[in-house]
Amino acid sequence: MAKMAYVTDLKTLQAECSANYLRLIRLVGDLEGDQHRNIALRSDDQDFGDLQLKILQNAPYTTMLEVSQSSPMDTLWEGPRMRVHLYHDVRMAEVTDFQRERHFRGRYRYPNARMHQPDEKLQLNRFLGEWLAHALAHGHTVDVPELP
Q1: Cβ(20)–Cβ(84) below 8 Å
Q2: Cα–Cα distance measured from residue 147 to residue 144, given in angstroms and rounded to the nearest whole number
Q3: Residues contacting 57, CB < 8 A, separation 6+
Q4: 135-145: pLDDT as tens digits
């Protein structure tokens, strides 16, 4: 029996990107160019490092930011890093770079040389959504407000 080719689910991808936009707006707040925010992902007995949101570029209709996670102090693990474009006119956020790999297609033939999944783009945006939802639910800001 022949396997059916993967068909990109645009509604699901768009819904994920829209939800991620709202999550990022809540987390980024009033940050401007070259500013960043650190969110501690810790509990009393576990340390998962800090989630860092850094504005790389700000334009009237788009913002590019880097989302990364530092490793806990006692490990050499390098956390995930991605660049996300926020499109303010359509209120969507899309992963455009993950671990220094850029420009993901909506679907890939499988197998392929880079071993991308057929729905790699959707999976990356879902990962971002889960990451941000965890930060919103369990994160603690570690930024110290500047005194006047």
Answers
A1: yes
A2: 9
A3: 33, 63, 64
A4: 998 888 776 55
pLDDT in tens, 13-25: 999 999 999 999 9
Is the separation of the CB atoms in 6 and 119 below 8 Å? Answer: yes
- Nearest by Cα to 120 from 5, 1, 6, 2: 6
Structure tokens at 109: 């033939």
d(CA 108, CA 104): 9
Give the closest residue to 6 by CA, choosing from 116, 83, 94: 116
Structure confidence at residue 147 (pLDDT): 46
Higher pLDDT, 20 or 48: 20
Q: Cβ-count burial of 47 within 10 angstroms (0-12 exposed, 13-18 middle, 19+ buried)? A: middle
The pair of structure tokens assigned to 90 is 């359509």
Global confidence as pTM: 0.83
Q: Provide mean pLDDT across the span 49-78.
A: 86
* Closest by CA position to 20, among listed 57, 50, 59, 65: 65
- The residue with tokens 């999976």 is 123
